[in-house]
Design a protein that fits this description.
39% of the residues lie in helices and 21% in strands. It contains eight helices and seven strands. By secondary structure, the protein is an alpha/beta fold. Strand 4, helix 7 and strand 5 form a beta-alpha-beta unit.
Length: 212
């Protein structure tokens, strides 16, 4: 999407609000790779998807600065919860205050740790999972998420077009692109889910776990 068209889209959707805008700015100023934060358009889409699905429990793999967790929590009904995992403990000092200072702090449980290992130990059945963590382990994250997801639940995976690099042959050392391509091939052949890729931002895959 070119810049002018993106400006048009953002002017014709719900605003992100002052708090999320401040978080987005702080993310880009203070953290490396600030563009990894979901941002205005994707954030409003995540909130809308939560409104549509009406999940009780959401699993997020990869909190980063907390932007997407807050957006999803905004869409939750009363009693809903986002369990968000961040494996990089160096992000905690930045992210935790932003989550705890948000208006939806009571709907977010922020956990430092490896979601692939720790999420199943929660004993929670999830209605939705958002995968936006280490691209090298997307397949493993997806398999774990599917194992704790109810039938009819949704998995959403970010960055699945990877700036178009999925069309290229990756270097053997480019483990992130290899991980994304492996995930895309894996999910395309997975009969357990219905799936679609939205060419939004850096690619967003949505998959529904089939019943039975």
């Amino acid at each position: 999407m070119n810049c002018e068209l993106e400006k048009y889209v953002l002017a014709h959707i719900d605003p992100e609000g002052d708090y999320l805008y401040s978080l987005w700015r702080a993310t880009n100023i203070h953290l490396l790779h600030g563009r990894m934060a979901s941002g205005h358009l994707q954030g409003r889409l995540l909130k809308m998807l939560v409104r549509m699905v009406r999940p009780k429990n959401i699993l997020e793999i990869g909190t980063f600065s907390g932007y997407s967790a807050i957006c999803m929590a905004e869409g939750l009904d009363e009693g809903g919860m986002v369990y968000t995992f961040e494996i990089d403990d160096e992000l905690e000092d930045f992210t935790r205050p932003w989550i705890e200072g948000s208006s939806v702090a009571d709907k977010i449980r922020f956990i430092i740790g490896d979601a692939i290992k720790e999420a199943p130990r929660l004993g929670v059945e999830f209605d939705m999972a958002f995968i936006d963590g280490n691209k090298r382990t997307y397949v493993e994250a997806y398999e774990m998420a599917l194992s704790v997801l109810r039938p009819g639940g949704f998995v959403i995976a970010d960055n699945t077009l990877w700036d178009g690099h999925v069309l290229e042959k990756p270097r053997p050392t480019d483990r992130q692109t290899i991980g994304i391509e492996a995930f895309n091939d894996f999910i395309a052949a997975d009969g357990r889910v219905e799936k679609v890729i939205l060419p939004l931002r850096d690619g967003l895959t949505i998959a529904m776990k089939k019943h039975g």
